[in-house]
Amino acid sequence: MIRPAIPEDAAAIVAIYNHYVVHTFISFEEQPVSEQAMRGRMADVQAVFPWLVSETNGLVDGFAYARPWKGRCAYRNSVETTVYVDREKLGRGVGTLLYQPLLQTLKDRGYHTAIGGIALPNDGSVALHEGFGFKKVAHFEEVGLKFGGWVDVGYWQLLF
């Protein structure tokens, strides 16, 4: 089931997200996020944009949301999209189930461009984005430093 996130989902969301923070270069954060901090992030996003969760048997197993691409006015019709899936559910279509309604909602609200930033390599995320028609538009080499190694970031764009 896909539904809007509620504040009570914050604990499950940080459990999913903090795995990526602590064990991977997929998130460029380096310290785990608290449940309270995540509730604040969720509230900030949901004031304007959708934040969705995937729930299976009453347990949150993924989340996706959109946020402004940049702060300047001329970017107001462009958003950055984000999706994270519980590591135990990777490859089972959870990301696709989350992105379908997220992207449709953004299109219905009149946004023109969705942008996904992907720490590379990440074949699963690239496949997810390209499966929805995103096209790679940029590749920045060695822009993140995590776990003592440099990480590239690619950007994929979808025009509605």
Describe this protein's structure.
The chain is α+β, with helices and mostly antiparallel strands and about 160 residues long. It is about 30% helix and about 35% strand. It is built from 4 helices and 7 strands, in the order βααβββαβαββ. It has helices at about 10-25, 35-45, 95-110, 125-130; strands at about 1-5, 50-55, 60-70, 80-85, 115-120, 135-145, 150-160. The protein is globular, with a radius of gyration of 15 Å. The mean pLDDT is about 95.
Considering the chains and any ligands shown, give keywords for the structure.
160 residues, alpha+beta, seven-stranded mixed β-sheet, globular
Query: Proportion of β residues?
Result: 35-45%
Output mean pLDDT.
97
Strand order of the largest sheet: 1-2-3-4-5-7-6
Largest sheet: 7 strands, mixed
Order of helices and strands: EHHEEEHEHEE
Give the helix proportion (percent range). 25-40%
Report the radius of gyration as a whole number of Å. 15 Å
Shape: globular
Instruction: Report, as a whole number of angstroms, the end-to-end distance.
Output: 25 Å
List unreliable stretches of 5+ residues.
Answer: none
Number of helices: 4
Strand elements, count: 7
What class do helices, strands and sheet pairing give? alpha+beta
Task: Give a topology summary.
Layout: E1 2-4, H1 10-23, H2 35-46, E2 51-56, E3 59-68, E4 78-85, H3 94-108, E5 113-120, H4 123-131, E6 135-146, E7 149-159
Parallel strand pairs: 4-5
Antiparallel strand pairs: 1-2, 2-3, 3-4, 5-7, 6-7
Helix pairs in contact: 1-2
